[in-house]
């Protein structure tokens, strides 16, 4: 669905995206991960045709260019900054933006109803946006990006500044969309979220691709071992193992377990192993 081959972008002397090659399959939920300044937004801007690469190619739907009108119509974009009219109701916003997409009449009203249901805002459509929480505004922004029924949805840091309830609602919406066959690309610097949500990820650091693959592959290859912290009548111990259940059974046979904590291999650990630093560094 999306193909980047050896893409490089420079701003003056600074290389912000450096020889990046990634492929996003149709129907996949793909995470572009990395710390602030890694080049995620710049990459997205090249995928949607807002910026041209200095080198390399970006193609969508086979050989389509992001600058083609037919290709643009396939994409829904949820930018980091919210684009909403605060003094209008959610429904009025959807009407306005829907018309910008060329939708009218019953088609528009049908789509508005569908997207509000998808983001779980149906009961608040008559309220002005300035009465919404940050998380609800983000959900409304997602709804608006979906009005024209895009087959590729791109979201830039969709859960930044969002309350846990809206965050879960956003996750549910994205999972529903994926089940309907929509391809989804999101950027994030929350590895735990990406692990829960994404099929595959690419990790960028200072413009360079440092890892890519399915979440399972990256965790299996780089996520380390499970860490058990066990307290028994004989004392406390920390065990690193690939077979935590076997270890627990063994200890249980010999000693009385008073408390047990298990940390499984995860994307956070994989990132640390690959880059040598925590994501927020
Ligand atoms: N128009 C521009 N002109 C000059 N430098 C820019 C421009 N846009 C981005 N940059 C720089 O490019 C680098 C990558 O920025 P980008 O926004 O792509 O990163 P990011 O991974 O999306 O980070 P964030 O999560 O903070 O948005 C940063 O150092 C940024 O300052």
From TrEMBL:
Keywords from the UniProt entry: ATP-binding, Nucleotide-binding
A molecular function GO annotation: ATP binding
InterPro entries in the record: AAA+_ATPase, ABC_transporter-like_ATP-bd, ABC_transporter-like_CS, P-loop_NTPase
Pfam families xrefs: ABC_tran (PF00005)
Keyword Nucleotide-binding: yes
Family matches, as SMART domains: AAA
UniProt domain ABC transporter: residue ranges: 2-231
Listed PANTHER family: LINEARMYCIN RESISTANCE ATP-BINDING PROTEIN LNRL
UniProt-recorded name of the protein: ABC transporter ATP-binding protein
Organism name: Chryseolinea lacunae
């Amino acid at each position: 669905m999306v193909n980047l081959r050896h893409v490089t972008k420079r701003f003056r002397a600074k290389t912000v995206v450096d020889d990046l090659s990634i492929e996003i399959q149709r129907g996949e939920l793909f995470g572009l991960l990395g710390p602030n300044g890694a080049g995620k937004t710049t990459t997205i801007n090249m995928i949607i045709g807002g910026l041209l690469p200095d080198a390399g190619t970006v193609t969508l739907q086979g050989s389509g260019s992001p600058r083609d009108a037919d290709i643009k119509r396939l994409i829904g974009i949820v930018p980091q900054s919210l684009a909403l009219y605060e003094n209008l109701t959610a429904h009025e916003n959807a009407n306005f933006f829907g018309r910008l997409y060329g939708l009218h009449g019953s088609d528009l009203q049908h789509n508005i109803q569908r997207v509000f249901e998808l983001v779980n805002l149906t009961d608040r459509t008559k309220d002005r946006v300035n009465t919404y929480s940050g998380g609800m505004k983000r959900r409304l922004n997602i709804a608006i990006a979906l009005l024209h029924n895009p087959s590729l949805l791109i979201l830039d840091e969709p859960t930044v500044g969002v309350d846990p309830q809206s965050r879960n609602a956003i996750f549910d919406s994205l999972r529903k969309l994926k089940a309907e066959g929509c391809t989804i690309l999101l950027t994030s610097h929350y590895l735990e979220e990406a692990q829960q949500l994404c099929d595959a990820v690419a990790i960028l650091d200072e413009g360079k691709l440092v890892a890519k693959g399915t979440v399972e592959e990256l965790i299996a290859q780089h996520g380390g071992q499970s860490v058990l912290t066990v307290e028994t009548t004989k004392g406390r111990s920390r065990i690193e193992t690939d077979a935590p259940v076997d270890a627990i059974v063994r200890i249980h046979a010999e000693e009385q377990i008073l408390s047990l904590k298990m940390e499984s291999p995860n994307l956070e650990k994989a990132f640390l192993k690959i880059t040598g630093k925590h994501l927020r560094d």
